[in-house]
Amino acid sequence: MARAIWSGSVSFGLVSIPVELYSATEDHTVHFNQFQRGTSDRIRYKRVNERTGREVPYDKIVKGHEVDSGEYVVVEPEELDEIAPGRSRTLDIEAFVDIDEIDPVHFQKTYWLGPAKPEFSRPYLLLAQAMKKTNRAGIAMFVMRGKQYLTALTEDKGILAVHTLYFADEIRKPKDVLDVTPEGRAPRGKELDMAVSLVESMADDWRPEDYRDTYTERVNKLIKAKQKGREVVVEAEPPEATGVVDLMEALQRSVEASKSKRGKKKVS
Q1: Residue 142 class from Cβ within 10 Å (0-12 exposed, 13-18 middle, 19+ buried)?
Q2: What is the reported pTM?
Q3: What is the CA radius of gyration of the chain?
C-alpha cells in the first residue's frame, strides 16, 4: 500500500474530517545517471563552498535570497517554519465554486484524499456526495512540505480528489509569452465548414486507456537494443507545415481519411 504524504483535516463550516493525502499519479520516465564519455566513471555533484572549494554538509547550509546585486538576506530553516501559514495542518474550504468555472490552465497536480480512519467515512462521503450533486469544487489552502498551496477539492466516483492550482499571478498571459500571435480576420466560409467537418469526423469518446507514453517505450527499446548490440531504428521525421495555399486540399483529404478510418473500425 502507498504511504500518505500529508495528513490533517478537511473542514467546511463547523464540520472537520481527519484525512490523509496520497499521490494520484506516478512517473514512468526513464531516468539516467551521468558518466564521463569513454569511461565507466559516474559524474556526481557536491555542495561545495565556492571560496574554499571544500564540501559543506547539509546541516551547515542556510538559504539566502538575493535582494541586490551580490547582496543576500540569509534565512534560517526555523524562521521559515515559524511563518508558515496554516501550521494547524488543516485543509480549510473557504468557498464552493462551479467546477466548470475553473480554467484548466490553473490545474497543477492531483492527489487522492481518504478518511484517516473508517469511523470518519460518513462525514467524508457526505461531503463527496454534496459536491457531486451540486457540481461544485471546494476551494481551500493548505501547507505541505514548507509550501502553501491553493487547491480545489472535487468528487470522483465517491472519492475526494485534491487538485493543486496555480495562483492567478503565476499564470502567464499568451500575449506576454508568444513570439507570434494569430492575426487577421477569423476564418469563415468553406474553410471553416471543412475544418468543422474534420473535427466532427474525428469526434470520439474520451478513453484515457487508449493512450500511452510511446516515447518512454521507445527509450526502453533503445536501451535494450544497445545492451544487445543491435542497430537502433530511427523514427520518421514529423510532417512539414501545411502551406496556406494547400490548406483547403489538406482539410478535404483529412476528412476523407478520417471517414475511411472510421469505416474500417466499424467493419472490424
Answers
A1: buried
A2: 0.73
A3: 26
Q: Cell 451540486, residue?
A: 134
Q: Where are the beta strands (DSSP E) in the chain?
A: 6-12, 15-23, 63-68, 71-75, 90-98, 107-115, 136-144, 147-156, 159-165
Residue with cell 521507445: 218
Enclosing H/E stretch for 225: helix 214-227
Confidence grade of residue 240 (pLDDT, cut at 50, 70, 90): low
For residue 206, what is the DSSP state?
A: -
Q: What does the chain come to in residues?
A: 268
Separation of alpha carbons 150 and 170, rounded Å: 12
- What phi, psi does 139 have (nearest 5°)? -95, 125
Q: Do the beta carbons of residue 10 and residue 140 sit within 8 Å?
A: yes
- 3-60 per-position pLDDT tens digit: 899 999 998 888 899 999 999 988 888 899 999 999 999 999 899 999 999 999 988 9
Q: What pairing do the DSSP bridges indicate for beta strands 90-98 and 6-12?
A: parallel
Residue listed under C-alpha cell 499571478: 169
Give me the residue label for grid cell 483529412: 254
Q: How far is CA 256 from CA 11, 103, 169, 231, in A?
A: 55, 34, 45, 37
DSSP string, 117-151: SGGGHHHHHHHHHHHHHHTEEEEEEEEETTEEEEE
Cα 256 from Cα 6, distance rounded (Å): 52
Angle of helix 247-267 versus helix 190-201 axis, rounded to 10: 20
Q: Which helix (H) or strand (E) holds 92?
A: strand 90-98
Indicate the SS3 state at residue 265.
Answer: helix
CA distance 31 to 216: 10
Rounded (5°) CA angle 73-78-84 = 90
